[in-house]
Amino acid sequence: MALMPHQPNDLMIRKLDSIFPLSDEERGALQQLPILLKGIKADREIVGIGERPAQSCLILEGFTCAYKLSHLGKRQIMALHVPGDMPDLQSLHLAVMDMSIASISSCTVGFIQHEDLRRLCEQHPRLTAAFWRETLVDASIYREWLLNVGQRSAYTRMAHLVCEILIRLKAVGLVEKWSFQWPITQEKLADALGITAVHVSRTLQALRADGLIRMEKTQVSVPDWERLKEAGEFDPLYLHLQVRKGA
Amino acid sequence: MALMPHQPNDLMIRKLDSIFPLSDEERGALQQLPILLKGIKADREIVGIGERPAQSCLILEGFTCAYKLSHLGKRQIMALHVPGDMPDLQSLHLAVMDMSIASISSCTVGFIQHEDLRRLCEQHPRLTAAFWRETLVDASIYREWLLNVGQRSAYTRMAHLVCEILIRLKAVGLVEKWSFQWPITQEKLADALGITAVHVSRTLQALRADGLIRMEKTQVSVPDWERLKEAGEFDPLYLHLQVRKGA
DNA sequence: CGGACCGTTGAGGTGAGTCAAAGATAGTGG
DNA sequence: CCACTATCTTTGACTCACCTCAACGGTCCG
């Protein structure tokens, strides 16, 4: 259990509301949702492949990832999660986990019982749509990663990933002046991009040499967003961030 | 417009029912759903990236794919669709298409208005769950493809893809004696696996030489399922086919 | 019978992998 | 506070799975 800077429910409400405007009543119902907080150290499995969870989780602080292993033991990270994300919302309707979720950094995670989510969805059909939409955005991100891993060079892939994380962190207010905390090792970047850790090292050096990113410890900053975007062939369409027309 | 061997609604109902048992009332409601049939030639775009469709489609005969292009014009196919699939159900909640859908072979496609789907979901909340679940299985397949493209050799990837298509076709009764129609060119296989068409040719030769697949024209057959499964590191868990316990 | 695809083959090239060792950094405990 | 360790990053030399380019053969269909 950990102390939180603000109520965990608020983060979820703000995120759902930002892309799917909610009524006061719906916000109130979400506010009532029981969320069990838990502090988790880095590199711990949170849900494992093959399990049948009775709850879904909500990332509050830190980073997590979804991954699978090949028979040779090589790991593919299929998604990175930032605060506000619900990595295994899918388990609400897919009984058995087909991937594992693990912490990347130390983090705070909230757990919500499926039972409670189901009741909420029954009573507020528009919330069903909001949660459904969240899982659809996840799917869209998987698609973009497929394009990334299948067709782009290591250099472009890396630039693309940095762009994505920047934008997603910006959406939850965790970016200041094009700079953000990102405690991720090169080995994990390698697993996310489908290259080796050695090649991640060389690729990051190239990006730094080209002035596209700057790194100090776990802090990443982007000196020239336009050039990084271009290098990463990044178009934020697939994140489906703005639904409100004209927003 | 094309003649169909049976009502298009039946195919959808059978598929939803197989993993998410429906009541008679729900089946009746689905039966009423207006579906507009259309025959489509091979290699035609059905929905384009950036569009805002007011309908979703249902594949009835033939094959389609979802794809995106990199800036260099390289194409990544992110999913293959077989009869019974609804490739752009996501557009019900994500206004703008983030990928394109195109026919791979000549095919018959049914179109369902979002308006009608929304009304159906409002009146039958359990159908909402059934459709939601369909999109979650799509997402699970994207994840498996990420593992495939990111971590496995061309040989393993190809074997895995053949396994997946076989199982999915089997589920809709389109496989007979480990053999099925699969009118797909090597160039499209290349785009789906993230390798070149030349390498697809060599990889298929290797699989044939090893006795894992046999091919005549557009017919593929699998002489030894167990060995192909092993070669492709294939575990059907991610397709989430059996929900009914003990089925 | 002729063109348009599609699949095959060969030779040579390259982006990324592998292996191994050395440097940097961070965490731990005395 | 420092010594000790474990982990992470960097570097260099070598290898290889897959790519590129180019030519050729098959097959379908008007």
From TrEMBL, chains A, B:
Residues 152-226 form the HTH crp-type domain. InterPro entries: cNMP-bd_dom, cNMP-bd_dom_sf, HTH_CRP, RmlC-like_jellyroll, WH-like_DNA-bd_sf, WH_DNA-bd_sf. It comes from the Bacteria. CDD domains: CAP_ED. SUPFAM superfamilies: cAMP-binding domain-like, Winged helix' DNA-binding domain. The keyword Transcription applies. This is Crp/Fnr family transcriptional regulator.
